[in-house]
């Protein structure tokens, strides 16, 4: 059994490998991850977002800074991310500080999005009450009129967050619920990664 446990000392490389496998096996959204946040009121909240890039600097997703998650992260810039790939029977947990993505980086990603997605970023007051669907459609039509071609600028409230990890857990299903749990953690963002294991 021990021969099938995970061993790696670089969490970013291991995440890259597992994501690549998940992209081959999952039917959709292998990059979907649960983002858990907790604002000043102490009430945890969670929702799915898509991982758009990752490297040694951290894991990046994009959203509306004025959304509920955006407000919670403004109040408490710490988050937990969780990937679950059913086809692989694997889970990855990532804990860390959250920072805003550089505007130039966000512009680059925004420019790569389909035109309607760009217009949607202007049209949606994400997480705020919507009286009826027609209001959203009218706002989308306004954005379409304002930006008649694909040259849609990035709304100032729409950008990315980067989770800068201090701890990863790579969980892998093993027979009889004797799962493998590999922890890669570091004491500070410039520290070396240390490896440990947890009982399942
Ligand atoms: C598969 C999937 C992917 C999603 N990706 C994103 C995303 O990348 N960014 C985002 O803001 N919301 C994304 N959402 C919507 C969020 O789950 C959520 O409904 C929205 O961001 C509002 O969350 P909030 O009110 O907690 O801020 C996604 C939902 C699903 C189911």
From TrEMBL:
<dbReference type="GO" id="GO:0010181">
    <property type="term" value="F:FMN binding"/>
</dbReference>
<dbReference type="InterPro" id="IPR000659">
    <property type="entry name" value="Pyridox_Oxase"/>
</dbReference>
<feature type="binding site">
    <location>
        <position position="109"/>
    </location>
    <ligand>
        <name>substrate</name>
    </ligand>
</feature>
<comment type="pathway">
    <text>Cofactor metabolism; pyridoxal 5'-phosphate salvage; pyridoxal 5'-phosphate from pyridoxamine 5'-phosphate: step 1/1.</text>
</comment>
<feature type="binding site">
    <location>
        <begin position="177"/>
        <end position="179"/>
    </location>
    <ligand>
        <name>substrate</name>
    </ligand>
</feature>
<feature type="binding site">
    <location>
        <position position="68"/>
    </location>
    <ligand>
        <name>FMN</name>
    </ligand>
</feature>
<comment type="pathway">
    <text>Cofactor metabolism; pyridoxal 5'-phosphate salvage; pyridoxal 5'-phosphate from pyridoxine 5'-phosphate: step 1/1.</text>
</comment>
<dbReference type="Pfam" id="PF10590">
    <property type="entry name" value="PNP_phzG_C"/>
</dbReference>
<dbReference type="GO" id="GO:0004733">
    <property type="term" value="F:pyridoxamine phosphate oxidase activity"/>
</dbReference>
<keyword id="KW-0285">Flavoprotein</keyword>
<protein>
    <recommendedName>
        <fullName>Pyridoxine/pyridoxamine 5'-phosphate oxidase</fullName>
        <ecNumber>1.4.3.5</ecNumber>
    </recommendedName>
</protein>
<dbReference type="GO" id="GO:0008615">
    <property type="term" value="P:pyridoxine biosynthetic process"/>
</dbReference>
<comment type="subunit">
    <text>Homodimer.</text>
</comment>
<dbReference type="Pfam" id="PF01243">
    <property type="entry name" value="PNPOx_N"/>
</dbReference>
<comment type="similarity">
    <text>Belongs to the pyridoxamine 5'-phosphate oxidase family.</text>
</comment>
<keyword id="KW-0288">FMN</keyword>
<feature type="binding site">
    <location>
        <position position="117"/>
    </location>
    <ligand>
        <name>substrate</name>
    </ligand>
</feature>
<feature type="binding site">
    <location>
        <position position="113"/>
    </location>
    <ligand>
        <name>substrate</name>
    </ligand>
</feature>
<feature type="binding site">
    <location>
        <begin position="62"/>
        <end position="63"/>
    </location>
    <ligand>
        <name>FMN</name>
    </ligand>
</feature>
<dbReference type="InterPro" id="IPR011576">
    <property type="entry name" value="Pyridox_Oxase_N"/>
</dbReference>
<feature type="domain" description="Pyridoxamine 5'-phosphate oxidase N-terminal">
    <location>
        <begin position="20"/>
        <end position="144"/>
    </location>
</feature>
<feature type="binding site">
    <location>
        <position position="181"/>
    </location>
    <ligand>
        <name>FMN</name>
    </ligand>
</feature>
<feature type="binding site">
    <location>
        <position position="171"/>
    </location>
    <ligand>
        <name>FMN</name>
    </ligand>
</feature>
<feature type="domain" description="Pyridoxine 5'-phosphate oxidase dimerisation C-terminal">
    <location>
        <begin position="158"/>
        <end position="200"/>
    </location>
</feature>
<dbReference type="InterPro" id="IPR012349">
    <property type="entry name" value="Split_barrel_FMN-bd"/>
</dbReference>
<feature type="binding site">
    <location>
        <position position="69"/>
    </location>
    <ligand>
        <name>FMN</name>
    </ligand>
</feature>
<dbReference type="InterPro" id="IPR019740">
    <property type="entry name" value="Pyridox_Oxase_CS"/>
</dbReference>
<feature type="binding site">
    <location>
        <begin position="47"/>
        <end position="52"/>
    </location>
    <ligand>
        <name>FMN</name>
    </ligand>
</feature>
<feature type="binding site">
    <location>
        <position position="91"/>
    </location>
    <ligand>
        <name>FMN</name>
    </ligand>
</feature>
<feature type="binding site">
    <location>
        <position position="52"/>
    </location>
    <ligand>
        <name>substrate</name>
    </ligand>
</feature>
<comment type="function">
    <text>Catalyzes the oxidation of either pyridoxine 5'-phosphate (PNP) or pyridoxamine 5'-phosphate (PMP) into pyridoxal 5'-phosphate (PLP).</text>
</comment>
<keyword id="KW-0560">Oxidoreductase</keyword>
<keyword id="KW-0664">Pyridoxine biosynthesis</keyword>
<feature type="binding site">
    <location>
        <begin position="126"/>
        <end position="127"/>
    </location>
    <ligand>
        <name>FMN</name>
    </ligand>
</feature>
<dbReference type="InterPro" id="IPR019576">
    <property type="entry name" value="Pyridoxamine_oxidase_dimer_C"/>
</dbReference>
């Amino acid at each position: 059994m021990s021969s099938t446990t995970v061993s790696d000392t670089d969490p970013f490389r291991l995440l890259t490998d597992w994501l690549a496998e998940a992209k081959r096996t999952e039917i959709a959204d292998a990059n979907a991850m649960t983002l858990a946040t907790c604002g000043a009121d102490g009430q945890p909240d969670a929702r799915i977002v898509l991982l758009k890039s990752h490297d040694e600097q951290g894991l990046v997703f994009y959203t509306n800074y004025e959304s509920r998650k955006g407000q919670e992260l403004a109040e408490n810039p710490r988050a937990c991310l969780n990937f679950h790939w059913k086809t692989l029977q694997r889970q990855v947990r990532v804990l860390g500080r959250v920072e805003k993505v550089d505007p130039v980086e966000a512009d680059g990603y925004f420019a790569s999005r389909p035109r309607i997605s760009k217009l949607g970023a202007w049209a949606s007051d994400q997480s705020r009450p919507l009286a009826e669907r027609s209001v959203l459609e009218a706002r989308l039509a306004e954005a379409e009129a304002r930006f008649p071609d694909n040259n849609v600028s990035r709304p100032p409230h729409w950008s990315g967050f980067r989770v800068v990890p201090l701890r990863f857990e790579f969980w892998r299903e093993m027979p009889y619920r004797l799962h493998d749990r590999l922890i890669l953690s570091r004491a500070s963002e410039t520290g070396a990664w240390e490896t440990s294991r947890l009982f399942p």
